[in-house]
Each structure stands twice: as structure tokens, then as C-alpha cells.
Amino acid sequence: MPLLTRKKQFALKVESVEGTAETLAAADVVMEVEETEANYTPEMQERDPLRKHLSPKGSVVGIEMGEATGRTETAPGATTTTKPNVDRLLLACGLQVHTARSFLLAGAPAGTFLPGERITGDAVGDGFFVRLDTLTVTYVEIVAFAATEVVTGSISAATATTDATPALADVGFGYRPNSVNPDSFTAAVMADGIRKQVFGARAEASLEVGGTGQVGFWAFTMSGAMTSPVDSVLFAGVTVPDDVPETFKNAAVKTDDATELCVDTFNLALGNTVARRSCSNAATGVKSYRITNRRPVISIDPEAELEATINFFGKFAGGTLFSFYAQIGSTAGKRTIVCAPRVQYQEMPGGDREGIMIYSPTLLCTKGGHPDGDDEVLIVFA
Fold first, then answer.
1. Long-range CB pairs of 147-150, under 8 A, 24+ apart, other chains included
2. How far apart are CA 130 and CA 114, in angstroms?
3. What is the spatial distance between Cα 53 and Cα 142, in angstroms, rounded to a whole number?
4. CA angle, residues 37, 40, 46, in degrees to nearest 5
5. Cα separation, 381 vs 311, whole angstroms
């Protein structure tokens, strides 16, 4: 009987022991994916002795490894206390998760806070600024801010004071890089009766929007050890929340928290280097995969402007560091927000869109204002 390409599930679970495959269950199918596949790609060791004839000998299976790929829609969880469906995927990409919250200011700030910059209070508060709506600050929380606390931006030096009743409230979740041993995962593509599974796996992913008015997707590649695929029925009783995504409109794409850019497409590549840990003690020859480096890059295609209006080339030639903000969806509680406190143009090729001049720059996300780093990009579901 032929197997159907549309009958697939993607399961993902954190490993209790790195490189030891977890037993997957229906509860581990936490997101619905498109274009998913897993490929078993062992190293085939050729045997090529010199002989009387030219007939080849069979190869020997060496290191066993593979990749699981796919893409899934980006959307916050159904409530402000429900993590997004991509939570496990982002953790596999070497990110850490914090609660996103809001608090009320007593008055307008002195100066302008920058998206993604660290903010600290003169008492206890600590976190990362996301946005300001009138007097309500959205931030990713490390330590909650207290009443009448003076808040200072680590890069902008902007200041503000929290209200006597700051009205702290949960608004979602925020993710930022994690350089300290992020978890490994077991992932499987269940393909209408065949299970293709990687373990000891970690991932690279990119947030992609193909055009204005379109849904955003997380496209991912999970690399890990892999044994030969086996027969296995699809999981029954799977319940995946249908978190309906909003589209790329009213996106507020801007730099310096002020200069709005008219873009059509958007891409954030986390830029992970996912390296194999070869180990002769492992049954597959692979202990696990590790994230050994990262270089997050944003790609956009803004309409060109005079330098006096938007100094694209002034910033590029000067190596200037500046902030970046964009959102997919515009309704509070439905947005996927990307903040970067210090980006830098890496290239500025020109182009055309419907007869309108555009640029297609890439922006490197660099270290922000936290002394311990891990703050070059912030992804917030709120």
C-alpha cells in the first residue's frame, strides 16, 4: 500500500541525558508543520582495493546521522500564560525563555528606550525593553520592577519612573540566546507508518516572511545522531492548539526606534553553527550535536530614500550600531516581535520592486548592553 505524503506528524522532546533518545508520545507533537522530512545520511565508507578487475566492493556504514527539517507558523500561545507552539523548537535552537510582562510608568520617559536593550531599576528591577504604549512598558523580565523605581536603559541612558501602582501583568513570553549548555532534543518525523528520528539534536532556524500580508514561518533544520528509520504508526489522540497567526501588516518596522522602513519581506536567521560531536563510544559514532557559534542576521528590503531622509549608506560606511524593531501581527497578544538593540549593516545591494528602487541589506545583530551578553536579539510573543 502506498504511503501518503500529507499524513505526517512532527514530535519533539527534551532529553534527560544528552545523546540518549527519548521515548516520544502524542504529547510531544506540539506543533503542526509543513514541508517536513527527515533524512538518514550515514557516512558510507568506500572499500576500494586494487584488483585484477574494476568491479567495486560494497561500502561499510560509518557514522550514522541525519537531519529533520520543516517549517511551522509563528504565533503566540492562546493565552498570556501559554507558551507558543514553537517553544521547544526555540529551546533546541539554543534560546532561553523568560516571561514577558508589562508595567505602568508614572510619567513620560526622559529619552527614548531602545528595543531589546537591557533596562534596570535603582532597586531590584531587571529585564529587556520591548516597546512603550503611552505609559505602559512591555519588557522581558529577569527580575520584576517595584513601585516608584527609577528605570534606566543600558544603551540609551533613557530614564523613567514606575508608577506607585505599577500594575505588573503577564503579556506573553520572550526568548533570547543562551550560551550556557542548552538542552539536546529527540525529534521525529512520523511519516504515515515510518518513524525517522534524530537524537542528541540541536537546531538552526529562521523566521521568514515572504511578503506583505503573509503569515510568518519558522523554517528549521535539526541535526542529530540517527539510526535506520523503522515502522511506527502515527500517534493517536494528538491535540495541538490552533493558534491562528496574524499577518505581516502594520508591522512597525523601524530603526533607532523612530525611523520607519517600508519593507515587503523579512527574515531573521538565528545563525547557529551546529557541529557534530563524533565519539567512538557512541553506537552511532555521534554523541550529539552542539551549537558552537552563532551569528544572528536580519534581512529586509526597504524602499530607498535620500540620505538626508534615511542615511542607509551613512550608517553602512560608518559601521554604525543602531536598534531594530519589527512585528508580525499588530494585535496585543497576537504579535511575534523581533528586537535587536545594536544591529549593523553588512551589505547594501540595490534592487527593484515594481519599478521602485529598493535596498536589500543584511543586518548583523551584535551584543547589546548586558555585560554577560546573550542579548543581541530578542523574540517576543505578546
1. 148/106, 149/121, 149/122, 149/123, 149/124, 149/125, 150/121, 150/122
2. 8
3. 70
4. 150
5. 31
Measured at the CA of 24, the angle between CA 21 and CA 25, to 5 degrees, comes to: 170
- CA–CA separation, 152 and 369 (whole Å): 11
For 252-309, how does the pLDDT look when each residue is reduced to its tens digit (9 = 90+)? 999 987 789 999 999 999 999 999 999 999 999 999 999 999 999 999 999 999 999 9
At 7, which amino acid appears? K
Residue 283: burial class (beta carbons within 10 Å; 0-12, 13-18, 19+) = exposed
pLDDT in tens, 227-247: 999 999 999 999 988 888 999
pLDDT in tens, 318-370: 999 999 999 999 999 999 999 999 999 999 999 999 999 999 999 999 999 89
| Short-list 271, 286, 181, 269, CA closest to 223 | 286
Cell of 360: 536589500
pTM value > 0.85: yes
Report d(CA 351, CA 362) in Å as an integer.
14
Query: Are residues 149 and 156 in contact, defined by beta-carbon separation less than 8 angstroms?
Result: no
Q: Which of 18, 169, 27, 17 is nearest to 102 (CA)?
A: 169
